[in-house]
Give the backbone structure.
Amino acid sequence: MKLIASLTSPFARKVRVVLLEKKIECQLEVANPWLPEASQQVPNPLGKVPVLVLDDGSVLYDSRVIVDYLDHISPVSRLLPKETRPLAVVKRIEALADGVLDAAINIFLEYKRPAGERNTAWMQRQMEKVVRGLEALAQDLGDKNWMYGTSYSLADIAVGCALGWLKLRFPDLTWPQDHPNLAALYEKLGQRSSFADTLPPSS
Ligand SMILES: N[C@@H](CCC(=O)N[C@@H](CS)C(=O)NCC(=O)O)C(=O)O
C-alpha cells in the first residue's frame, strides 16, 4: 500500500496517525497538490490528497473513506465503534473537525491573494464556521477524557489533527483560552507517538 500525501495536510495527517496507531505498514509518497504537475502524481480526479493506493493498484479517497477502510482491515487498536449509533456519532465528530478545517483552509487560501483582492465577507463567513465548529467540539468533549465515550477513537484523531493545523496556520486564534478542555485534549494527544511523529513542518 502507498499513501500519497502532503506533510502539512491535516487530512493526510489523520490517515498517517491511524496507520501508526494500527501499526499498518504503508509507503509514504509526498506530493504537493497545489503544483501544476500534481494532476499526474495524485490519482484523484479532484486533485486532492490524501490518496491511498492499494496493492492491486486501485485507489481510495478521501480521508474519511481511507480511515474507515484501515480500521476494517486490521483488528489492532480499533478506532471506530461497531454499533450503528455510536459509529454515527464518531463519524459526525470527524465530519465537524474536517468541516472546521475546510472553512479554515478557505481563509488560508484567501490570504494568499493580494490584500486588495480578498473577499473579506467570505473570510468572515468562514471564520464564523470555525468558531461555531470549535464551540460545538468543545461541547461534545465537555469534561470527558475523550471526544466520544470512555476511550480514544477516530473522533480524537480528527479533532487533534484539526487543532494541530489551526495551531500551525492560525497561531493567534484564541481557542486554547476559549476552550481549555480542547487545549488539554490537544496536549494529551501530542504525547502519543502517532501525533509526535506526524507533526507538520512549519512551511
Ligand atoms: N475531504 C478531503 C479533503 C482533502 C483536501 O482538501 N486536501 C487538500 C490538502 S489539505 C488538497 O489536496 N487540496 C488541493 C486542492 O484542493 O486542489 C479529505 O478528507 O481527504
User: Anything to note?
Assistant: The chain has a mean pLDDT of 97. Residues 6, 9, 11, 33, 47-50, 62-64, 98 surround glutathione (CB under 6 Å). The longest strand covers residues 2-5.
